[in-house]
Specification:
The chain has about 260 residues and is α/β, with parallel strands linked by helices. Helix content is about 30%, strand content about 30%. The protein has seven helices and 18 strands.
Length: about 260
């Protein structure tokens, strides 16, 4: 089945050029000439990836991304911005809204194809949503924190995976997603912030060691100091070394002792 790409671009010639290129690369292409049409087609067509210009009259690319982020059926679609602007503030704004990548005009055709392929491959292999998001206690009240004995049900494209909370080794930020690494070292990628994970995981078991990393203290093997006077934690059954921020160093040292 062909992967469907939605292109949102108000410059007609560029829209046509990208469309022709992607069709030649065996993609199913849907096009929109403005932001409003782009949102409509994203909801209707459910594309596998969206390419969107930032500077458009009416609704700009930021508006499109923000609006799609409010809809559970479109919030997880990989999103690539096209832009001629390279200011740090613009990049930060897009990333905060959930953009997965940027392509700067003018770009080469191979750059576009590489960006699309990378995002599709990465997302399709490990993307997930959580099935048991709304947990309630016996009184029907919403429970915001998992317990050690709880299972988390991740829905993948063609299957579901059940992961025991206690068997999650660590969670690391990956752009707008987080990678959940569980006991057998398999990865699950989900659009959820590190801060949100910190809120819902049992605080007696999971601690934050970096702005982008949470670890399960049961899997700590050792903490080592590097020549650069920084610290890393090595987890059991993995060669992965995770950076420890000075902000969290005292806390993890206390646990390790």
């Amino acid at each position: 089945m062909l992967k469907k790409i939605l292109i949102v671009e108000d410059e007609k010639q560029l829209l046509n050029n990208i469309s022709i290129l992607l069709k030649a690369e065996n993609f199913d292409v849907v096009t929109a000439a403005n932001g409003k049409e782009g949102i409509y087609l994203a909801v209707k067509e459910k594309p596998d990836l969206i390419i969107c210009d930032i500077m458009m009259p009416g609704m700009d690319g930021y508006d499109v991304l923000e609006e799609l982020g409010k809809n559970c059926t479109t919030s997880l679609i990989p999103f690539i911005f096209l832009t001629a602007k390279v200011e740090t503030g613009d990049l930060r704004k897009g990333m905060e809204l959930g953009a997965d990548d940027y392509l700067f005009k003018p770009f080469k055709s191979e750059e576009l194809i590489k960006a699309i392929t990378t995002r599709l491959n990465k997302f399709e292999i490990v993307k997930a949503t959580i099935l048991n998001e709304e947990k309630k206690n016996t009184d029907g009240q919403k429970v915001t924190r998992y317990k050690l004995e709880d299972n988390i049900f991740f829905r993948l494209p063609n299957s579901s995976v059940i992961v025991a909370v206690g068997k999650i080794k660590y969670i690391a930020a990956d752009n707008q997603y987080t990678c959940v690494v569980h006991e057998d070292n398999k990865l699950i990628l989900i659009r959820r912030s590190i801060s949100k994970w910190e809120e819902i995981l049992p605080e007696k078991l999971f601690i934050r060691i970096h702005r982008s990393t949470i670890i399960n203290t049961l899997y700590i093997n050792k903490i080592e100091k590097s020549p650069a006077n920084s610290y890393k934690v090595i987890l059991k059954d993995t060669s992965k070394k995770l950076d420890i921020s000075r902000k969290y160093l005292r806390k993890i040292k206390k646990i390790n002792h």
